[in-house]
Amino acid sequence: MADEGRVDATGIPTSLAQVIAMNSEYAVLLCAKSQCRRAQTVKGIEEHLRSFHHEKPAIRKEAGEFGRRLARQDVRFLEDYTVVNLPANGLAPQPVVPVVDGFSFRLCRFLTVSRFMVRKHVNKKHSVRGKEDEHIVARVRLQRRPQVVGFPEEQGGQPAPV
User: Fold this and answer.
1) What span, in angstroms and rounded, lies between the C-alpha atoms of 63 and 132?
2) Is 47 domain-assigned?
């Protein structure tokens, strides 16, 4: 490969720049494909690129090697993404991760992209029934924690406010 060994400003090999992204501050590896943008585990990146994006074996292998190299340099890249420290509310959006419309319960700041789920939360956890949504639910902009795609024991998906 002509680009082998060269890295862009983020530290990602230029040959992988269209395939993966990372947020080194939060130790998160992301799929950079525009239709995806999901967090990946070091263990799961090769399988993700094969199964979901049908990338060539050489790209998959290089991405896996890059992920393992990251993990040797910073063990946080091995963590389960459900325990990653998220940015504080109100900060600028994180790169790569899409910003979406969502809902927040005003009393406890429960956040979701689903109107159904916020109503279910309100009814079940707070026994608030019969009130109009406008009085108890706020529309918010969320930046979704990227859905984790990796091994079955890993979970993801909680939104983070923007």
Assistant:
1) 49
2) yes
Structural domain tally of the chain? 2
Contact between residue 34 and residue 43 where contact means Cβ atoms under 8 Å apart: no
Q: What is the pLDDT of residue 155?
A: 35
Those residues whose C-beta lies under 8 Å from the C-beta of residue 63, and which sit 6 or more positions away, are 16, 19, 20, 45, 46, 49, 55
- Indicate which CATH number applies to the domain containing 136: 3.30.160
The model carries a pTM of 0.61
Digit-coded pLDDT (tens) for 117-138? 888 888 888 887 766 777 788 8
Nearest residue to 42 (alpha-carbon basis) of 159, 144, 154: 154
51-107 pLDDT, tens per residue?
999 999 999 999 999 999 988 888 888 766 666 676 777 778 877 777 888 888 888
